[in-house]
Model the fold of this input.
Amino acid sequence: MTIENIIDFDCEQTLDCGQAFRWVKQGDGSFRGIAGGKAVVLRKDGDKLMIDGSGDTDKDKDKEFWRHYLDLDLDYGNIRTTLSQMHPILNEAAQFAPGIRILNQDPWEALCSFIISQNNNIPRIKGIVERLCREFGEEISEECFSFPTAETLGRLTPEDLQPIRAGFRARYIIDGARKVADGTIDLEKIRTMDINTARSELMKITGVGVKVADCTLLYGLHRLDCFPLDVWMKRAMSTLFPEVSPEYFGEYAGIAQQYIFHYSRMHPELFDK
DNA sequence: ACCCAGGAAATTC
DNA sequence: GAATTTCATGGG
Done:
Protein backbone atom coordinates (compact mmCIF):
# COMPACT_ATOMS: atom_id res chain seq x y z
CA MET A 1 0.00 0.00 0.00
CA THR A 2 1.17 3.55 -0.71
CA ILE A 3 0.22 6.85 0.87
CA GLU A 4 0.95 9.85 -1.35
CA ASN A 5 1.85 13.49 -0.71
CA ILE A 6 3.66 12.89 2.56
CA ILE A 7 5.23 16.01 4.08
CA ASP A 8 6.70 16.80 7.49
CA PHE A 9 7.18 13.09 8.15
CA ASP A 10 10.36 11.07 8.42
CA CYS A 11 10.43 7.42 9.44
CA GLU A 12 13.65 7.58 11.42
CA GLN A 13 12.85 10.87 13.14
CA THR A 14 9.40 9.64 14.18
CA LEU A 15 9.97 5.95 14.86
CA ASP A 16 13.44 6.13 16.40
CA CYS A 17 13.18 9.24 18.59
CA GLY A 18 12.36 7.58 21.91
CA GLN A 19 8.55 7.68 21.83
CA ALA A 20 8.11 4.06 20.65
CA PHE A 21 10.26 1.02 21.26
CA ARG A 22 9.18 -1.58 18.72
CA TRP A 23 10.47 -0.18 15.42
CA VAL A 24 13.70 -1.60 14.05
CA LYS A 25 15.70 -0.01 11.27
CA GLN A 26 16.48 -2.47 8.49
CA GLY A 27 19.68 -2.60 6.47
CA ASP A 28 18.00 -0.87 3.52
CA GLY A 29 16.81 2.09 5.64
CA SER A 30 13.22 0.91 6.00
CA PHE A 31 11.58 0.32 9.38
CA ARG A 32 10.01 -2.92 10.51
CA GLY A 33 7.50 -2.85 13.32
CA ILE A 34 4.18 -3.89 14.75
CA ALA A 35 1.24 -1.73 15.78
CA GLY A 36 -2.42 -2.48 16.20
CA GLY A 37 -1.70 -6.16 15.69
CA LYS A 38 -0.29 -5.51 12.22
CA ALA A 39 3.29 -6.24 11.23
CA VAL A 40 4.63 -4.01 8.47
CA VAL A 41 7.66 -2.48 6.84
CA LEU A 42 7.58 1.29 6.29
CA ARG A 43 9.66 2.95 3.63
CA LYS A 44 9.57 6.52 2.41
CA ASP A 45 10.58 7.40 -1.11
CA GLY A 46 10.26 11.10 -1.90
CA ASP A 47 6.77 12.12 -0.86
CA LYS A 48 5.43 8.57 -0.98
CA LEU A 49 5.17 6.27 1.99
CA MET A 50 5.14 2.54 1.22
CA ILE A 51 3.56 0.21 3.75
CA ASP A 52 4.19 -3.46 3.07
CA GLY A 53 3.18 -6.64 4.78
CA SER A 54 -0.10 -5.78 6.41
CA GLY A 55 -2.41 -8.74 6.14
CA ASP A 56 -5.58 -6.70 6.37
CA THR A 57 -7.82 -7.32 3.38
CA ASP A 58 -9.78 -4.11 3.94
CA LYS A 59 -7.36 -1.68 2.31
CA ASP A 60 -9.28 1.49 3.09
CA LYS A 61 -9.57 0.64 6.76
CA ASP A 62 -5.94 -0.42 6.85
CA LYS A 63 -4.75 2.80 5.26
CA GLU A 64 -6.87 4.78 7.69
CA PHE A 65 -5.24 2.91 10.58
CA TRP A 66 -1.75 3.88 9.47
CA ARG A 67 -2.69 7.48 8.66
CA HIS A 68 -4.00 7.76 12.19
CA TYR A 69 -1.12 5.85 13.83
CA LEU A 70 1.46 8.08 12.13
CA ASP A 71 -0.68 11.18 12.80
CA LEU A 72 -0.57 12.15 9.13
CA ASP A 73 -3.74 14.26 9.23
CA LEU A 74 -2.41 16.90 11.60
CA ASP A 75 -0.72 19.93 10.03
CA TYR A 76 2.75 19.73 11.56
CA GLY A 77 4.14 22.34 9.17
CA ASN A 78 1.81 24.91 10.63
CA ILE A 79 2.51 23.83 14.21
CA ARG A 80 6.26 23.90 13.59
CA THR A 81 6.04 27.43 12.25
CA THR A 82 4.14 28.56 15.33
CA LEU A 83 6.57 26.86 17.72
CA SER A 84 9.61 28.11 15.83
CA GLN A 85 8.48 31.71 16.29
CA MET A 86 8.37 31.23 20.05
CA HIS A 87 12.09 30.73 20.61
CA PRO A 88 15.23 30.68 18.42
CA ILE A 89 16.58 27.47 19.91
CA LEU A 90 13.24 25.72 19.48
CA ASN A 91 13.40 26.87 15.88
CA GLU A 92 16.83 25.25 15.62
CA ALA A 93 15.60 22.01 17.18
CA ALA A 94 12.53 21.87 14.94
CA GLN A 95 14.62 22.50 11.81
CA PHE A 96 16.95 19.70 12.88
CA ALA A 97 14.17 17.08 12.72
CA PRO A 98 11.14 18.54 10.94
CA GLY A 99 9.87 15.03 10.23
CA ILE A 100 8.99 14.17 13.81
CA ARG A 101 5.35 13.35 14.52
CA ILE A 102 3.71 12.16 17.72
CA LEU A 103 2.36 8.67 17.12
CA ASN A 104 -1.09 7.48 18.11
CA GLN A 105 0.13 4.41 19.96
CA ASP A 106 -2.05 2.02 21.86
CA PRO A 107 -2.49 3.58 25.33
CA TRP A 108 -1.78 0.38 27.24
CA GLU A 109 1.33 -0.31 25.18
CA ALA A 110 2.60 3.22 25.84
CA LEU A 111 1.84 3.00 29.56
CA CYS A 112 3.54 -0.36 29.92
CA SER A 113 6.53 0.68 27.80
CA PHE A 114 7.15 3.82 29.83
CA ILE A 115 6.83 1.90 33.10
CA ILE A 116 9.66 -0.23 31.74
CA SER A 117 11.59 2.89 30.68
CA GLN A 118 12.22 4.16 34.21
CA ASN A 119 15.86 4.29 35.31
CA ASN A 120 16.73 2.41 32.14
CA ASN A 121 18.39 3.05 28.80
CA ILE A 122 16.77 2.87 25.39
CA PRO A 123 18.56 -0.21 23.99
CA ARG A 124 17.67 -2.20 27.09
CA ILE A 125 14.07 -0.90 27.12
CA LYS A 126 13.72 -2.22 23.58
CA GLY A 127 15.12 -5.59 24.64
CA ILE A 128 12.71 -5.96 27.55
CA VAL A 129 9.72 -4.92 25.41
CA GLU A 130 10.74 -7.37 22.70
CA ARG A 131 11.01 -10.24 25.18
CA LEU A 132 7.68 -9.24 26.73
CA CYS A 133 5.98 -9.48 23.34
CA ARG A 134 7.76 -12.69 22.40
CA GLU A 135 6.83 -14.40 25.67
CA PHE A 136 3.29 -13.15 26.18
CA GLY A 137 2.05 -11.63 22.91
CA GLU A 138 0.50 -13.44 19.99
CA GLU A 139 2.52 -14.43 16.97
CA ILE A 140 0.83 -12.49 14.17
CA SER A 141 3.22 -13.63 11.51
CA GLU A 142 6.60 -15.33 11.32
CA GLU A 143 8.64 -14.04 14.31
CA CYS A 144 6.33 -11.02 14.75
CA PHE A 145 4.52 -10.74 18.07
CA SER A 146 1.75 -8.40 19.19
CA PHE A 147 2.05 -6.41 22.40
CA PRO A 148 0.46 -8.49 25.18
CA THR A 149 -2.86 -7.16 26.46
CA ALA A 150 -3.38 -5.88 29.99
CA GLU A 151 -5.78 -8.78 30.49
CA THR A 152 -3.09 -11.31 29.60
CA LEU A 153 -0.44 -9.75 31.80
CA GLY A 154 -2.91 -9.11 34.61
CA ARG A 155 -3.32 -12.85 35.12
CA LEU A 156 0.41 -13.27 35.71
CA THR A 157 2.61 -12.62 38.72
CA PRO A 158 5.89 -10.66 38.81
CA GLU A 159 7.73 -13.99 39.03
CA ASP A 160 6.20 -15.01 35.70
CA LEU A 161 7.99 -12.03 34.11
CA GLN A 162 11.40 -13.32 35.18
CA PRO A 163 12.37 -14.35 31.61
CA ILE A 164 12.02 -10.81 30.28
CA ARG A 165 14.54 -9.51 32.88
CA ALA A 166 12.68 -6.32 33.71
CA GLY A 167 14.13 -6.29 37.21
CA PHE A 168 12.29 -4.28 39.86
CA ARG A 169 9.84 -3.06 37.20
CA ALA A 170 8.14 -6.46 36.96
CA ARG A 171 5.77 -5.79 39.84
CA TYR A 172 4.96 -2.35 38.37
CA ILE A 173 3.99 -3.95 35.06
CA ILE A 174 1.71 -6.43 36.80
CA ASP A 175 0.10 -3.76 38.97
CA GLY A 176 -0.58 -1.61 35.91
CA ALA A 177 -1.92 -4.54 33.92
CA ARG A 178 -4.32 -5.56 36.69
CA LYS A 179 -5.65 -2.06 37.22
CA VAL A 180 -6.23 -1.55 33.51
CA ALA A 181 -7.72 -5.01 33.03
CA ASP A 182 -10.17 -4.77 35.93
CA GLY A 183 -11.29 -1.24 35.10
CA THR A 184 -9.72 0.47 38.12
CA ILE A 185 -7.93 2.55 35.51
CA ASP A 186 -9.95 3.44 32.40
CA LEU A 187 -7.48 4.74 29.85
CA GLU A 188 -10.16 5.95 27.44
CA LYS A 189 -11.83 8.01 30.15
CA ILE A 190 -8.46 9.42 31.10
CA ARG A 191 -8.03 10.54 27.49
CA THR A 192 -10.54 13.34 27.96
CA MET A 193 -9.98 14.24 31.62
CA ASP A 194 -8.36 17.52 32.54
CA ILE A 195 -4.64 17.12 32.67
CA ASN A 196 -4.13 17.07 36.43
CA THR A 197 -6.94 14.59 37.08
CA ALA A 198 -5.67 12.39 34.26
CA ARG A 199 -2.17 12.45 35.69
CA SER A 200 -3.24 11.53 39.21
CA GLU A 201 -5.45 8.72 37.85
CA LEU A 202 -2.44 7.16 36.14
CA MET A 203 -0.37 7.64 39.28
CA LYS A 204 -2.66 5.23 41.13
CA ILE A 205 -0.49 2.56 39.55
CA THR A 206 2.55 1.56 41.58
CA GLY A 207 5.53 2.54 39.51
CA VAL A 208 3.86 5.45 37.73
CA GLY A 209 5.03 8.90 38.80
CA VAL A 210 4.67 12.26 37.08
CA LYS A 211 7.11 11.50 34.28
CA VAL A 212 5.70 8.10 33.28
CA ALA A 213 2.17 9.54 33.54
CA ASP A 214 3.08 12.42 31.23
CA CYS A 215 4.69 10.08 28.70
CA THR A 216 1.55 7.93 28.72
CA LEU A 217 -0.60 11.00 28.17
CA LEU A 218 1.53 12.37 25.33
CA TYR A 219 2.55 9.19 23.51
CA GLY A 220 -0.39 6.91 24.35
CA LEU A 221 -3.34 9.28 24.66
CA HIS A 222 -2.14 11.98 22.27
CA ARG A 223 -2.39 14.78 24.80
CA LEU A 224 -0.19 17.16 22.87
CA ASP A 225 -0.02 19.75 25.61
CA CYS A 226 1.87 17.33 27.90
CA PHE A 227 5.58 18.02 28.36
CA PRO A 228 7.36 15.07 30.03
CA LEU A 229 10.47 16.11 31.97
CA ASP A 230 13.11 13.40 32.19
CA VAL A 231 16.78 13.87 33.02
CA TRP A 232 17.55 14.91 29.43
CA MET A 233 14.71 17.41 29.27
CA LYS A 234 15.53 18.92 32.64
CA ARG A 235 19.10 19.40 31.51
CA ALA A 236 17.96 20.78 28.15
CA MET A 237 15.54 23.22 29.75
CA SER A 238 18.02 24.57 32.30
CA THR A 239 20.80 24.87 29.71
CA LEU A 240 18.96 25.91 26.54
CA PHE A 241 15.75 27.53 27.84
CA PRO A 242 16.67 28.89 31.29
CA GLU A 243 14.04 31.64 31.07
CA VAL A 244 11.15 29.46 29.87
CA SER A 245 8.71 27.08 31.56
CA PRO A 246 6.97 24.24 29.67
CA GLU A 247 3.55 25.96 29.73
CA TYR A 248 5.04 28.70 27.61
CA PHE A 249 4.96 26.34 24.60
CA GLY A 250 1.16 26.10 24.78
CA GLU A 251 -1.23 23.52 23.40
CA TYR A 252 1.46 21.80 21.31
CA ALA A 253 4.10 21.79 24.03
CA GLY A 254 4.44 18.01 23.66
CA ILE A 255 5.60 18.40 20.06
CA ALA A 256 8.10 21.03 21.18
CA GLN A 257 9.24 18.59 23.85
CA GLN A 258 9.93 15.94 21.24
CA TYR A 259 11.89 18.33 19.01
CA ILE A 260 13.98 19.39 22.03
CA PHE A 261 14.47 15.85 23.34
CA HIS A 262 15.65 14.53 20.01
CA TYR A 263 17.85 17.56 19.34
CA SER A 264 19.46 17.23 22.78
CA ARG A 265 20.16 13.52 22.43
CA MET A 266 21.75 14.10 19.05
CA HIS A 267 23.92 16.91 20.47
CA PRO A 268 25.20 15.65 23.83
CA GLU A 269 28.22 17.98 23.54
CA LEU A 270 25.87 20.88 24.36
CA PHE A 271 25.78 19.61 27.93
CA ASP A 272 29.41 18.68 28.54
CA LYS A 273 31.05 19.96 31.69
C1' DA B 1 35.52 -2.12 39.73
C1' DC B 2 32.63 1.80 38.79
C1' DC B 3 29.06 4.58 36.76
C1' DC B 4 24.97 5.50 34.41
C1' DA B 5 20.36 4.62 32.43
C1' DG B 6 13.56 8.93 29.12
C1' DG B 7 12.18 7.21 37.81
C1' DA B 8 9.66 5.93 41.57
C1' DA B 9 9.13 3.55 46.07
C1' DA B 10 10.95 2.92 50.50
C1' DT B 11 13.52 4.62 54.12
C1' DT B 12 15.66 8.06 56.87
C1' DC B 13 16.47 12.49 58.62
C1' DG C 1 7.66 16.63 54.76
C1' DA C 2 11.98 16.95 52.35
C1' DA C 3 16.30 14.61 51.28
C1' DT C 4 18.63 10.22 50.46
C1' DT C 5 18.83 5.29 49.36
C1' DT C 6 17.40 1.37 47.10
C1' DC C 7 15.57 -1.17 43.44
C1' DA C 8 17.41 -5.24 38.89
C1' DT C 9 19.88 -5.49 34.99
C1' DG C 10 23.06 -4.55 31.33
C1' DG C 11 26.46 -1.74 28.80
C1' DG C 12 30.32 1.36 28.53
Remarks:
- Chain A has three domains: 2-73, 75-101+222-273, 107-218.
